[in-house]
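Suppose you are handed only two things: the residues of a chain and a line of SMILES describing calcium ion. What would the bound structure be? This form records exactly that question and the answer produced for it, so the two can be stored side by side and reused later without any lookup.

QUESTION INPUTS
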Amino acid sequence: MRHLPYALRFVIATAAIGALAALVWAGTTKIVVEGEAYYSIKPSMAVATSEVASGGKYVQIPLRRPHAATETDPADDGHAKYRVKAPADGNYRLWALCSWYDGCGNSFFVIVDENPATIIGQDGTYQRWHWVKGPRVQLSAGWHWIKIQNREDGAKLDQFMLTTSERYVPVAKEAPTPEFIAKPQ
Ligand SMILES: [Ca+2]
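ANSWER OUTPUT
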């Protein structure tokens, strides 16, 4: 490449890096589900609207009055249940785009199929939307139930994502993938 003009060398190098990145990404699955794209919903989980939310909507456990000041058991098993298709067997990292009220309103239970509940959240970022790293879940190819359930009031969910990449870190709203999501007719 020494005799090639610098600009051309740059273009070739950029294309090569792009092709390599595409190859690496080709083996990666990303499933993005809107909070409001649930199969079923049970109160106190509820839908809310917001101009800044992806799709204009999110789901939440509305703030109770009085809001718990300590870590107490949830008042109900309100949840949103999602029907999600894994295109292949694999370990998937769950991420959720959440907004927490405070330290007593900063988590959900995550229940995959009949497995025991795990927790997402408990971080210290409050009152703004941010991606929260959740559990790693093993999924076989095919359809699964994913339940996001009340653990604390004041917790909001805009989107969640399952990805086979351990390196991918979401920073903004993700494009939903309706091909992996079933809803009642
Ligand atoms: Ca949303």
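WHAT STANDS OUT: Residues 6-26 form the longest helix (21 residues). The chain has one helix and twelve strands.
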